[in-house]
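Quick one before lunch.
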Amino acid sequence: MIKIGVTGAAGRMGKTLIEAVANAEGVELTAALERPESSLIGADSGELAGLGKNGVVIAGDINEVVDQFDVLIDFTAPVATLANASVCAAAGKKMVIGTTGFTPEQEQQLLANQDKTALCKAANFSTGVNVTLKLLRQAAEILGDDYDIEIYEAHHRHKVDAPSGTALAMGEAVAAGVERNLRDVAIYGREGQTGARKRETIGFATVRGGDVVGDHTVMFMADGERVEISHKASSRMSFARGAVRAAAWIAGQDAGLYDMQDVLGL
Ligand code: NAD
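Model of the nicotinamide-adenine-dinucleotide complex:
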């Protein structure tokens, strides 16, 4: 049985992850964490997730529970994930990282832990999105420079980073397909006298509101036709199931950096 810790246990993803671990085979929840100042420290994590008592009490300090799990699943916030990663790396514990919104410096600091332990990091853990990423790269390779590429994403009103990590991953996939560097060609907003669109640019449009779990559409547009490749998430369970699958997989891997494409063998 692979022992799983979930941090951000009271968050939208945390509760869904606790349920996904409970419903998966070969894994068991052995630790749950929240921020130290949370009023939920000491509460039963199963009750919090609406599953009834599971006996795993929410802790506020990772150092107290780091010897209780094999893999930590972390969907929290960049600063919290960085702190958790250094504790896990020092203890040789593996991690599945779903947090998004790292600055380039934070990303570099996080990934430095791959020398000491196995990390599986993905902007999106759903199987559907990972298949979509593969399709996008193929479409971009075939359609090439003849098509204008734009990316639209919509999320719930509570999301704090933009564009979404998934939209950026889609941008990377299409940019790789047309052999461009996303950093050089991305346009993250348009306003005023922007001038005509430059062919090589890849534009992002962000919508925030309501309870949208995650919509993404990549458009390939030419004179006379438009190809759209879309993914729409209607439940966080698709991310949570993928993250638990990644946790079971990474338990058997050596130190290094992996993503969901590795887990799925894509
Ligand atoms: P949320 O705000 O509902 O939950 C975050 C939780 O983390 C909160 O409960 C918060 O108290 C907790 N937290 C913050 N600091 C902590 C700390 N030091 N220790 C323990 N817990 C701490 O947010 P959410 O919607 O669950 O999303 C969380 C993150 O996951 C975001 O970055 C989001 O973009 C990302 N996300 C990724 C995927 C994916 O598939 N990769 C899918 C959905 C969300």
